[in-house]
Amino acid sequence: MTSAAGELAACPVCGHPAGPEAACGECLWTLRSGPQPGPITPELRREFEARLEAARHTWDTTVAALLSPERETYQDQIRGGLPQAAEWAAALQRADLAARGAVEAGTLHARQVKSCRRGLTDV
Ligand SMILES: [Zn+2]
């Protein structure tokens, strides 16, 4: 998929190339949804921006935890700034699962759905 400018569309959270799926196959961010009734109010826009910022922060924190066990090492690369201690602890757990080859249930489900749509059996 490409943008109107002809650029390859990417997930706004993780940068993974965006295909035709409704959710990003890497981070599960909703890329497409059905039409919503009513106007886009400032409150809806603020709510969306807050969810996007939180998702970016969580993504960046997890990637930083994969690269280093020290919270401050990649703090300049984490959108939203240095994670709180609890956020860092959760990111270390996600990084540990990823390093062991495990995936979270939501990610696994997204990959299974993606594979089923393609008619593949491997996930
Ligand atoms: Zn993504």
Shape: globular
Give the C-alpha Rg: 16 Å
Q: What structural category do the secondary elements indicate?
A: mainly alpha
- The residue ranges in which pLDDT falls below 50 over 5 or more consecutive positions are none
Ligands, deduplicated: zinc ion
What letter string, H or E per element, gives the SSE order?
HHH
* Number of distinct beta strands: 0
Beta-strand residue percentage: under 5%
Biggest β-sheet strands, sense, barrel: none
**Tally of contiguous helical segments:** 3
Integer average pLDDT: 84
- Estimate the helix proportion, in percent: 40-55%
* Ends distance: 22 Å
Describe the structure.
The chain has helices at about 40-65, 85-100, 105-120. The protein is mainly alpha-helical and about 120 residues long. The mean pLDDT is about 85. Bound molecules: zinc ion.
